[in-house]
Amino acid sequence: MRVLIHIDQAATWRDALAEHLPDAEILTSEAPANQRRDIDYLAAWKPPEALLREQTDLKGIINLGAGVDALLNNPGLPDDVPIVKLRDAGMAELIGDYVRYGVLHFQRDFDRYRRQQARHEWREHTVDDKRDWPVGVLGLGAIGAKVASMVAADGFPVHGWSRSPKQLDGITCHHGDDGLPELLGQVRTLVLLLPGTPHTRHIINAEALASLPEGASLINPGRGTLVDEAALLEALGEGESEGRLRGALLDAFPAEPLSEESPFWSHPRVWVTPHMAGPTPLKDAVGQVAELIEAFEAGETLETVDPGAGY
Ligand code: OXD
Fold it and tell me: N or C: which terminal CB in the chain sees fewer CB atoms within 10 Å?
């Protein structure tokens, strides 16, 4: 069996995967083109179009990340090859930590203190009780559900939203078109963890932002396409004094890297991070990749990506 890996530091992934699959021949995408032939499985994160096109006999593709939007939008993707994606593999906990940091950042006024420090201003704000700080999580897949439970374990009331009904312990779940404004109307921090699909594009538009309570904050470790950036800038307003939207912690943008001209870089109430909330942890992920390949080989029925749904 031949496996091709395409990801940053692919050689490290290759060596780690070889320990799980000692009988497989594992190559990285840096191998010469004449060796990248007769590949059975491609394990990849954002593979180039040409790499996908040169593989004609794939039995399966393993997406080395949670979101499959980049892969599904790749014109080189063959139609008939099943795709599986990593399920959590340690990413959810990392994203959960990022979100917990973000929630505390706003709830404990670190955003305000940062601006005050620049002005050498010593002024304490009254702490809003966590119990009065509802957090909304849009997207309750493997990652969203874990993140919601981590924030709830910190003592915040958590509301979750998904397209179809879900039940999660300790989370107030909302769903469907009616459930979204219901959630938006009551959360002080909104967290976006939906997949990037044509259905979720600009789900956070001017109307959604206007439904949030005055002074709400936004955390987006999900996908940049979820947010209408012009509407977000409008809701934030300009300058230091807090607009309808108090601030935003943004890790994902429609085009990455974020362009140098983006107004988000210098907005005083926006924190930009370079899509670092949930890197794929190699150790857990490699074990999962090996299990998925073994399951493919054993002819097991796998939960594959539905290209129509986009996840
Ligand atoms: C992912 C990501 O989808 O890092 O895994 O964005």
Answer: N
